[in-house]
Amino acid sequence: MKKTFAVVFFVFCSATVLAQTGSLDMLVLRNSQNRTVKSYFSGRMIEFGASNGRVIGGMIRKIESDTLFIQQYDIRQAYTMWGTQVQDTLSVYFLKYHYKEILWIRKDKAGFELFRSGTLFMVGGAAYTALHLFNAAYQKEPVIWSTVAISTGIAAAGFVMSKLRKKRYTIGSYYQLKYINTSTAPEKKK
To answer: What is the C-alpha to C-alpha distance for residues 41 and 45, in angstroms, rounded to an integer?
Structure first.
């Protein structure tokens, strides 16, 4: 009885997994050492710049025959019966792009992004400079210019960090986007 239940349960789980996968094709972003940086498949969010100049963002619904099918929502402000505005989904539509039309892909935000992007340094340095100048004027004391220089330098370092931070993978010499068709992959010989 227990073995029968286990077999039926295993078959049921396998059938539902196979039914949910749909298209097994995927796109793989690789660096110049041929290491996989990111994999994109059905059900994953993506934001990229296309060759026609548009920035496309949405969920990948299907990858088939070298083509991405992206689901996008048209969300706009709509008026309620009381005259207030609320966001409403007007329509859902699909866009299709060949994978070679992708020029760059936006990076996902990583942990400690506030520190990595330099935002915290810019805000902290500028706030400390303003606070020191305000306190010096309010208490009628002299401004300590070394303190102002250090806090302004921290804000400037944060600005430089934000400009140097790469926010996208540019497809070209260093990053390549590869299409992988798993349904026609060759089987291993036994």
So the answer is: 9
